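Researcher: We plan to redesign the surface later, but first we want a full-length starting point. Tokens attached.
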């Protein structure tokens, strides 16, 4: 990759070519329908995009909802005067099943603006902008404004910002949260991804770099402010007088969500993924089972359809190298005999015991060394993060392809490997020097995206369903994650104080998946484990085997048939029931047959007695029971009295009254 402000579309194509397709690979787009054009709109799954005359996004609909309150715009001032651009070429869409491209030219105030764009089936819309002066001009300001429809922008997420670069990795999420309710006014230093949305969908802006940006205040490089019916996200690219002598280039992208259709192997609200598998689990009897069953059969009995192994299957951390081929083949075969899949842990790291480490480390690792997390394990090694923009990413993918072929595995657990972590290694095209000569990081979003495309194609070449599990904890980067099946988050809180509880908006932004089209498992480590985790996943329709009660939810969802039901969260305009208590919330399902399943969650740290008032949609249901304990509950005048322990959830199954059989 060349060292430029942001790679052009040509360089992106060269990058893709550096990861050539291998034998047996298919397209990464199997999950999405072919792209189409209709009356100037680009149609991708569940979304419709329309570029305006200047080439900038004019409309973006997702699920029938308009995500843009008005067209995206460039606010440009030269010599202190606002520029008015007029199109000089007619925009023409070049539509293929797997891409739509176009270019547009505008002119005004002594500058020519060229926009080149690429839209792909997952809804990723990449926009390359070039501002070329006809002669030297004084560029006073340049701002990119994305007006997101205000009624769809209650929630906010941004990529965590490394503090004290390069000494510190990422901030503690319980002190510096980056997911939650959108404030009326928000400001931030440059960060590569900002998502604005609600519980049903959203819009993510992204950019790899802020090189050449000159905001008036570096701490306000990105802002959000409400204006009429919009929440305007503004990128303050130039706000200091700049003599423009040559073309200024920058790239950004937008992606509306949900990003993909529901896959066929997501059944009854889950993929059935479990982690912490080990060699020999197909023969080792699980302690305490009667009659005795193996650990693998025990997991299958819980409802597991995929068994994941952590790092122990390889002696080189994160690498596609099997320590014991015989045991691996035995476990994979045993999984397949039970109708299950085997998923193996991987990370884009280079262990210092890997042959060739010295040569690889010079041009493939993220820099500066120590700017990102360095893992250590046995056999004794230190595992250094590699960059997606380096040649190592292609070698890593090739090894994974061979692993699939040799051992017939069924998926990948990517520990951070789906995220474009910051890198300043100029040897492979990342990083830049700022005006003071300091080395600054860039974020290889498009390189990471190409890696994920390659992995998706490898998985989809299998004859069985394959799973990509992306452990992204607090890095919600839709352009890379759209190729995953299941996301994991929550581990960022494992060092939080014992009394810490995130705001509920965090869970609705990052831990449900409904608004992104990517089911998400919350990792219920302390201090957010125990009854609290059980309650949180129930209230957010996010059954997770990483939390107490997660596999109980799997079985309960099977019994109720949630695939045939409609979900209503506690935040809905019309929740299925209320309790009159602000911290006792109700979410649930109404089945097409008429029955209902409610999760009543007490978020207080002390027990509560509440009266559940049923909404009109379920008021006619007269029989109630706790489906986990089989306890029958009284329904009087559409009300149910409940006792709830501290941070406890209770499930309520409601049915119509049986028909009368006598006079």
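Model: Full-length starting sequence:
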């Amino acid at each position: 990759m060349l060292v430029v402000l942001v790679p052009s579309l040509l360089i992106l194509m060269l990058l893709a070519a550096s990861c050539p397709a291998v034998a047996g690979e298919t397209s990464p787009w199997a999950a999405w329908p072919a792209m189409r054009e209709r009356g100037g709109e680009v149609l991708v799954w569940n979304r419709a995009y329309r570029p305006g005359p200047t080439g900038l996004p004019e409309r973006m609909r997702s699920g029938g909802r308009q995500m843009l309150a008005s067209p995206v715009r460039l606010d440009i001032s030269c010599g202190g005067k606002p520029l008015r651009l007029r199109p000089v070429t007619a925009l023409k869409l070049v539509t293929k099943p797997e891409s739509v491209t176009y270019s547009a030219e505008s002119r005004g105030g002594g500058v020519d603006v060229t926009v080149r764009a690429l839209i792909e089936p997952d809804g990723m819309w990449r926009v390359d902008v070039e501002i070329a002066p006809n002669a030297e001009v004084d560029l006073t300001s340049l701002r990119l404004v994305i007006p997101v429809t205000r009624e769809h922008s209650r929630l906010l997420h941004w990529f965590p910002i490394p503090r004290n670069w390069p000494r510190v990795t990422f901030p503690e999420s319980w002190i510096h949260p980056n997911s939650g309710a959108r404030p009326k006014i928000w400001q931030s230093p440059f960060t590569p991804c900002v998502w604005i949305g609600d519980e049903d969908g959203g819009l993510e802006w992204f950019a790899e770099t802020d090189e050449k940006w000159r905001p008036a205040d570096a701490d306000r490089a990105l802002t959000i402010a409400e204006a009429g019916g919009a929440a305007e996200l503004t990128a303050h690219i130039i706000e200091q007088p700049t003599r423009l002598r040559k073309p200024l280039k920058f790239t950004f992208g937008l992606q509306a969500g949900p990003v993909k259709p529901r896959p066929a192997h997501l059944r009854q609200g889950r993929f059935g993924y479990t982690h912490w598998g080990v060699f020999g689990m197909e023969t080792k009897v699980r302690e305490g089972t009667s009659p005795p069953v193996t650990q693998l059969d025990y997991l299958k009995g819980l409802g597991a359809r995929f068994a994941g192994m952590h790092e122990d299957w390889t002696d080189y951390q994160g690498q596609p190298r099997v320590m014991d081929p015989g045991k691996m083949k035995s476990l994979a075969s045993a999984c397949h005999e039970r109708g299950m899949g085997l998923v193996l842990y991987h990370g884009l790291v280079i262990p210092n015991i890997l042959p060739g480490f010295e040569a690889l480390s010079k041009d493939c690792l993220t820099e500066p060394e120590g700017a990102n997390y360095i893992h250590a394990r046995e056999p004794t090694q230190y595992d250094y993060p590699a960059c997606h923009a380096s040649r190592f990413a292609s070698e890593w993918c090739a090894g994974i392809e061979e692993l699939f072929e040799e051992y017939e595995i069924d998926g990948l657990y990517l520990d951070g490997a789906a995220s474009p972590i910051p890198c300043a290694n100029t040897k492979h095209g990342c990083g830049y020097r700022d005006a003071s000569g300091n080395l600054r990081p860039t974020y290889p979003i498009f390189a990471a995206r190409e890696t994920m495309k390659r992995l998706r194609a490898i998985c989809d070449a299998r004859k069985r369903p394959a799973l990509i599990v992306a452990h992204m904890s607090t890095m919600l980067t839709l352009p890379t994650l759209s190729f995953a099946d299941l996301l994991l988050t929550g581990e960022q809180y494992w060092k939080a104080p014992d009394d810490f509880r995130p705001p509920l908006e965090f869970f609705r932004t990052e831990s449900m998946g409904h608004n992104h089209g990517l089911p998400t498992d919350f990792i219920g480590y302390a201090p957010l484990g125990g009854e609290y985790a059980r309650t949180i996943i129930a209230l957010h329709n996010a059954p997770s085997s990483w939390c107490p009660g997660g596999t109980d939810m799997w079985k309960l969802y099977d019994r109720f048939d949630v695939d045939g039901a409609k979900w209503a969260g506690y935040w809905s305009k019309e929740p299925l029931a209320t309790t009159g208590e602000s911290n006792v919330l109700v979410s649930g399902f109404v089945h097409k047959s008429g029955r209902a399943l409610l999760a009543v969650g007490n978020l207080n740290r002390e027990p509560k007695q509440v009266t559940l008032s049923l909404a009109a949609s379920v008021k006619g249901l007269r029989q109630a029971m706790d489906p986990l304990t089989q306890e029958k509950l009284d329904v009087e005048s559409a009300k149910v009295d409940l006792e709830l322990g501290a941070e406890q959830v209770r499930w309520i199954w409601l049915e119509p009254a049986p028909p009368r059989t006598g006079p």
